[in-house]
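Practice record 12: protein with thymidine-5'-diphosphate.
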Amino acid sequence: MAIQQTILITGGAGFIGSHLTRLFVIKYPDQKIVNLDKLTYAGNLENLVDIEGAPNYTFVKGDITDIDLLKQLFEQYHFTGVLHCAAESHVDRSISDPLSFVKTNVLGTVSLLQTAKEYWKDDLANKLFYHISTDEVYGSLGEEGFFTEETRYDPRSPYSASKASSDHFVRAFYHTYKLPVIISNCSNNYGPYHFPEKLIPLCINNILQKKPLPVYGKGENVRDWLYVEDHVKAIDIIFHKGKIGETYNIGGHNEWKNIDIIKELCRQMDEKLGRQKGESEKLITFVKDRAGHDLRYAIDATKLKEELGWQPSLQFEEGLGKTIDWYIANTKWMEDITTGNYQRYYEEQYEKR
Ligand code: NAD
Ligand code: TYD
């Protein structure tokens, strides 16, 4: 099939990026998808084995802060769209190493913006720089209320501060240089290929292995959970139908206290693994709270529903069930991560060719 246009996805080997890359590669065979990923600890090419041979897919190992590489890729592929997913994404890591978050999330984003601006400057028609961001830029809610697109930014962790900064740069490039941009801010995702440093996959893995389930503080913090495939479907709709210069909030209207999610995981997994009722809950262990732990996130996604017709397709219990089933069926994926084997995959697949 003749390729009509080429899209750059950054961070396509990560959790959300791999679902997004798969969706675009399969759904748009007349578009070429170039996945640029540094393959940090969070990047795993095993997430994409099913599409790595697709004729409209190319993987490039590289860093989004490497402007020479970015220029070379824009020259070579003539991208008309950028879906920017690459980031350092884990709050706990940002607390111990904030600088690497500034480097990738701020400098990396500005490097991409600058390259797109230079390359597209003579013809901005039919171009789009889509920045994938988080609801954490809005800060922390009390018991009531929701984040809307108008909520004032109030980031409180080094991670969310770096994402907020990158969002501001994206808007600055729109206002200053008319770069065609769109931003979406999404709530917590869950689903297959989620790296086991985050709450849900960490607990699934620990329940499987009968290891303690670490609950920060009292487990009262609330997150609004969305199945990752619903997130990437929203991105697809916004990428194709969204209005330039706009921001869209994406969320599941699905708030859960951490402790309740962990109990639900225990309940479903005891059933699926044929364990005694209540067995896995005994693994729950309360540990020291995260520094500056945001209390509650909750998204109002009315704009996206009313303007572009998107809404989540899965109920949480069902999505969680699908996620658990995937982890039970893919123990090798988890083993490769915990043993570090996944980091050798690139070498075996690409460097020896
Ligand atoms: P992830 O940590 O699973 O994946 C990040 C990917 O980016 C990895 O493949 C990594 O190798 C790559 N990467 C990191 N630094 C890079 C660099 N300097 N150059 C090139 N590639 C680099 O993250 P995720 O959970 O998939 O999140 C993707 C995006 O979505 C992020 O921008 C994040 O802020 C945003 N987001 C995530 C969530 C969530 O719940 N996970 C929710 C809302 C928004
Ligand atoms: P996480 O998955 O790290 O996402 P985020 O911090 O971006 O929301 O954490 C989700 C929630 O779970 C958050 O309130 C912190 C909490 N948490 C634990 O209680 N124990 C854990 O081991 C982890 C990783 C997170």
